[in-house]
Amino acid sequence: MTGPTVIVRKSEGVLEIARDDGGTERFPVSVGSNPDLADKLEPGDCRTPEGDFQIVSIEDSSDWEHEGRRSYGRYFLRLACPPWDGIGIHGTDEPELLGRPASRGCIRMSDEGLSRLVELTAPGTVVRIVP
After folding, report:
1. CATH number of 50's domain
2. Is the dihedral of CA 78, 91, 68, 11 positive or negative?
């Protein structure tokens, strides 16, 4: 087993999982809210970095808070994407924004999509983020 291929297509607002059995699953996502959808250039620019990054950990984020709200969903898949810290794939408390740029740089997914991603991936899985 080689593991799935995970591709985030920023301009389409989708995350694709190409499974080992040849099947493909697609989920709507939100990426960085900067309207230019360009590659991340500096901290705080609300852009999602582009390139190939590994999942380094899958963390329970069910009780994490951001600005007083539990906004991360059940899981946070932390990505190694130097020089940027804190970039990952996580749930959202704003599912109505999926498919549109809405995050500060992370990739947001529905709880169902995120659970499926956790089932199919592990630390070491490569996530390719493309324009």
Report:
1. 2.40.440.10
2. positive
